[in-house]
């Protein structure tokens, strides 16, 4: 997380762009200005907020116990 925060800070201060690959969607949603989301049926590129509004994460996992909470902007595991 510290590394991602440093990279984001450098992007802003130095007017640079950093591409990174990450399987931690919660972290990527929180720290990214833009995301490329690759799914079996389609690829999506937009800001995390727009991807959330479009419902890209709503049925991301085939497991029905893993749901995306749009208000918290993160995945929740239901019991």
Any overview of this molecule?
- With 79 residues, this protein is an alpha+beta fold.
- It has 3 helices and 4 strands.
- The strands form 2 sheets. A two-stranded antiparallel ribbon has the order 1-2. The chain has a two-stranded antiparallel ribbon with strand order 3-4.
- The radius of gyration is 14 Å and the shape is globular.
- The model has no long low-confidence stretch (mean pLDDT 93).
Features:
alpha+beta, 79 residues, two-stranded antiparallel ribbon, two-stranded antiparallel sheet, 4 strands
Largest sheet: 2 strands, antiparallel
Helix content: 25-40%
H/E element string?
HHEEHEE
Note the overall shape.
Answer: globular
Please specify the SSE layout and strand pairing.
Blueprint: H1 2-14, H2 25-31, E1 35-38, E2 43-46, H3 48-53, E3 66-69, E4 74-77
Antiparallel strand pairs: 1-2, 3-4
Summary of the model, kept short:
By secondary structure, the chain is an alpha+beta fold. 33% of the residues lie in helices and 20% in strands.
């Amino acid at each position: 997380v510290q590394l991602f925060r440093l990279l984001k800070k450098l992007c802003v201060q130095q007017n640079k762009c950093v591409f990174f690959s990450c399987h931690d969607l919660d972290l990527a949603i929180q720290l990214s200005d833009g995301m490329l989301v690759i799914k079996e049926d389609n690829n999506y590129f937009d800001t995390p907020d727009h991807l959330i509004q479009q419902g890209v994460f709503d049925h991301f996992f085939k497991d029905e116990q893993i749901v995306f909470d749009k208000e918290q902007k993160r995945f929740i595991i239901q019991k």
